[in-house]
Amino acid sequence: MSVTYNENAKIFRLRAKDTDYILKIAPGGYLAHVYFGKKVPDEDLTYLLRLDENPFTPETNNRDKACYMDTLPFEYPCFGLGDYREAAFRIMDENGMSTCDLRYLSHRIYRGKPALDGLPATFATEDSGAETLEVVLEDKPAALEVTLIYTAFDKLDVITRSAIVKNVGKRPCTLTRVYSACVEFDTHEFDMITLNGSWARERAVERCRLHHGKQSVDSMRGESSHQNNPFTALCSHTADEDTGEVYGFNFVYSGNFISQAEVTQHKKTRYLMGINDLDFSWLLEEGESFTAPEVVMVYSDSGLGKMSRTFHDLYRNNLIRGEYKDKRRPILINNWEATYFDFNTEKLIDIAKEAAKSGIEMLVMDDGWFGHRDSDNSSLGDWFVYEKKLDGGLKYLVDEVNKLGLKFGIWFEPEMVSPDSQLFKEHPDWAIQVPGRELTLCREQYVLDYSRKEVRDHIYSMMKKILDSANIEYIKWDMNRQLTEVGSAVLPSNRQRELWHRYVLGVYELMDRLTTEYPHILLENCSGGGARFDPGMLYYSPQIWCSDDTDAIERLKIQYGTSMCYPCSAMGAHVSDCPNHTVGRSTPFSTRGNVAMVGTFGYELDITKIPQQDRDAIPGQIEQFNKYNALVRTGDHYRIGNMFEDNTWDAWMFVSKDKSDALFEFVQVIGRPNERSRRIKLKGLDPDKYYYEESDPDFKLSGAALMQCGINIGGIWGDYQSKIMHFMAAE
Ligand code: GLA
């Protein structure tokens, strides 16, 4: 049983693999948080609710309610009753009052895991052994019921949370904050790890010691963003890749979010995650409800590496869906960095011809094939073929590409409209805007109001026409600007602040429609590179373009940071040309291949123009990708190097679940004197097994030696060089 309830003690215990999460209905009916961490015997831990400081001990002295409220660890703290820490829930009732008082009403426990209406979420499978606890809290005066939903996965150290708020009364009430999770920790001795960055350098790992007061990362950009990812880990100060306690939080959502830790006067930590409440409100009329997206919580007693591997397993098995979920993805060639907007049918066929010779399996036609788009200043929203460029039409092109033995994929940016487009001329009010104010342009484009069904329907019907007109087997769904002047032409004034969230729900709805009607199409998400690399998007697309920075060395950091919670098998990664278009660096073709190989793999270059020796190397790279892809997709990932700490080298491994097969990759970023003979300790092997290394017939060492003593990485000459080693267990 993953979830139990002790009626006498009024204690709920959720057990996920080796993790316990314990809560209690405390005196007064408040739902209190008792414990989250490594599993403990079934004994009374409610002393954790009391503070040693006198005189206010919550269980015996409930006279001073305000003090009780300010010290009790809450499962879902609300605003206005004397809990002066940050709340998870706030309202504005019809009288303009914000006080709220949530008390236990009922609960239920059941096997499985519910879906969240209109939202992406992890799901239970037959063998994931998930069990769910729902606790209903009520605020009587406002007639609100808040259902907290917890699911424990009994084969993974994962607990998920979300909340549904329902207006069970007759009077309207406005929600001004509905976070998804609050977790109270009995200590403040944590480091906070976040993934921050910018365009072309997404998800850089940053680690800071928690201090008194509040510290947070967030997005108010309408998407999860390049700048901050909806991920946070709280870990012990000494935690590293392999040791120490870590709590990982990841928000299954693609819009505005907040992830905040607060160290309180008593040196405890309150951690909150949810939809950012800045510029947010949601009106609940009689009978209506609001669903807060899911937070995935992972506990690790063995460092960051174990936390990451738990997220990877969960997302690969219980989040990513569709025909490509467990499949090797086609090796594609994308024409963006090859041609930018300057292409036509002939050019694409030339690329396809050369690609076919090398064993590439799909041509992806990127931006520029529609309307009259010759640069980024027009035509978004006009999803019909630009005949001048694609002479002969789309079907002709796709057929020709198919005849060469390649699949065909296409780029869309469905959420956008250019001022210079037929769509905008016909429907200027479809762009998100505030009447009477100038619309801000970004990349010469506006954002469509996806809260409106007619907008989504129209865009979908245009996309459908294209998809039905030719044999299209892949879509790159891009989103190249963030939201400004957030106003809708159709929402009433008391619902305008709902637009941020309604926009995201609209995007999800359209992605759902697309993937349901075209299940065979492989969907890759993208947002100016990796601005929407989040679990919400992974629910609809099994892969996401990691970054517009395709330089192999920059990618070491980007892919390392991304791997904190997202599986490598979902990272869009391509071999591109040199000097690299973003940073101007030249790296060996082999290193570009070795780095891209641990993602979805493909090429983003003009194959008709690259040096012959690079072209000749492609079949070998493809063979190598095919050989190791199953291991990358299904194995355990171990980070060994850390470019954020030492940017002279990097290394990582993938180890099969049965520990019989392991891939080790090393990149020498900078060649340095007297550092050419490095000894690197491997990870994740079976200490009792003996391993061969494929390229060296004399090599045989125990897993114990490989992990405790290491291997020699010698004789690598020059910057940006890389090496692959393949270890196989002896029978
Ligand atoms: C974004 C994407 C790129 C490319 C361009 C096209 O920047 O990240 O890969 O598709 O848009 O405009």
**Averaging pLDDT over every residue, what do you get?**
96
CATH class of the largest domain: Mainly Beta
Question: How many distinct folded domains?
Answer: 3
Query: What do we call the CATH homologous superfamily of the largest domain?
Result: alpha-galactosidase from lactobacil brevis
Q: Say what the CATH topology of the largest domain is.
A: Beta-galactosidase, Chain A, domain 5
The biggest beta sheet, please?
A: 9 strands, antiparallel
Order of the strands making up the biggest sheet: 6-7-8-9-19-15-14-11-12
How would you describe the oligomerization state of the chains in this entry? single chain
Low-confidence residue ranges: 54-60
Shape: globular
Radius of gyration: 27 Å
Head-to-tail CA distance between termini: 38 Å
Name of the CATH architecture of the largest domain: Distorted Sandwich
Determine the strand fraction and express it as a percent band: 25-35%
Class derived from helix and strand content: alpha+beta
Compute the number of strand runs: 38
Hetero ligands: alpha-D-galactopyranose
What fraction, in percent, of the residue positions are helical?
10-25%
The tally of helices reads 13
